[in-house]
Amino acid sequence: MRILFIFLILGLNSFSQEIPSKWEELTASDWPQALEKSKRTIILPIGILEKHGPQGPIGSDLIRAKEWAERVSDLEYAVIFPDYFYGQVNEARHIQGTFSLPSDLTMKLLEATCKEIARNGFNKILIINGHGGNPSFLRYFVQNQMESQRDYVIYFYDPEGDPEYEKKLAAQRTSDAAGDMHAGERETSELLYLRPELVQMEKSTSESGKDQMRLKNIPNIYRGIWWYASFPKHYAGRGETGTAELGKLITDHQVSSIAKALKSIKEDTETLNLQNQYFDDVRKSSTEN
Ligand SMILES: [Zn+2]
User: Fold this and answer.
1) Mapping DSSP to helix (H, G, I), strand (E, B) and coil, where does residue 83 land?
2) What is the pLDDT of residue 218?
3) CATH number of the domain where residue 124 is located
4) What are phi and psi of 87, to 5 degrees?
5) Rg (alpha carbons) of the chain, rounded to whole number
6) Tell me: the pLDDT tens digits for 37-79?
7) Where are the alpha helices (DSSP H) in 17-98?
8) Would residue 169 count as lying in a domain?
9) How far is the centre of ligand 1, averaged over its atoms, from the C-alpha of 174 (Å)?
């Protein structure tokens, strides 16, 4: 009886043992527990390497996405995939520090990465993105998941506006929200909160983050050169107005909102079922025709 009790305690201990959330920090022997604890869910934070105004680090978007993932996983456990900074950043190739792979490779790399993640036991992959040039690419990537059947689901965190939060944000910020798109008040604040030692605030006014409006001749037409036309220095907004306090507000909101989505994803069985049903229908219609 006493021996049984000791075994029970040992068993409980090994089950409740804290394990890291970062893929690279887990041991191979932790893997079964990581899969169970995460409900086979992994976060894939995607960033980019590109200039962030005169003051921000090149990896600002990677740093932000990784920090969100770590904070989210503390609230709601999931494994976190290591540094991933391959995305759409063709518009910044004229500035040093930009890492921009060919577009077809970028798509294939993400597809192969997700397949390889799934081969390791995960069937739910939550993509969280830190880079403003990525959403169109990521939505297309998610649509491409319907091209062929797979035994996992890609979830892309693509939040709708939250009026309550927007109100708080508007009350705290000091620069114009409309022009604050890249390394401006919002993003600089996030970095000042997350990694202040990497922000060179004294340089934040050495360049202009104003819209240069160099391409306004044809309305309602989208062109790849639009960003370069408006923000050739990869600076959009006023970084000098950033504060760590604002950064905390933004980060806390982002983290709680992703954690909420992650909790639902871990419980979700409907998406994979429906995905499988869809491919059954595709097969049926293909043999009928
Ligand atoms: Zn950024």
Assistant:
1) coil
2) 87
3) 3.40.50.10310
4) -155, -160
5) 22
6) 999 999 999 999 999 999 999 999 999 999 999 999 999 999 9
7) 31-37, 60-75
8) yes
9) 19
Average per-residue pLDDT in the chain?
94
The percent of residues above 70 in pLDDT, for the chain, comes to: 93
Whether 4 maps to a domain, the answer reads: no
Ligand 1 centroid to 119 CA: how many Å? 31
Helices (H), ranges, 147-235? 163-172, 185-194, 226-230
- Examine residue 118 and state whether it is found in any structural domain, yes or no: yes
Rounded to the nearest angstrom, the distance between the alpha carbon of 130 and the centre of ligand 1 is 6
CA 183 to ligand 1 centroid distance, Å: 6
CA 116 / ligand 1 centre spacing (Å): 27
Across the chain, which distance is largest between two alpha carbons, in Å?
85
Q: What's the 98 CA to ligand 1 centre distance in angstroms? A: 12
Please give all residues whose CB falls under 5 A of ion ligand 1, grouped by chain where several chains appear.
60-61
CA of 250 to the centre of ligand 1 (A): 14
Domain count, the chain: 1
Tell me the residue range of the domain where 237 lies: 21-268
Q: How many CA atoms lie within 13 A of 3 on its CB side?
A: 0
How remote is the CA of residue 151 from the centroid of ligand 1, in Å? 33
101 band by pLDDT with thresholds 50, 70 and 90: very high
Cα 121 to averaged position of ligand 1 atoms, centre (Å): 32
Q: Look at residue 6 and tell me if it is in a domain.
A: no
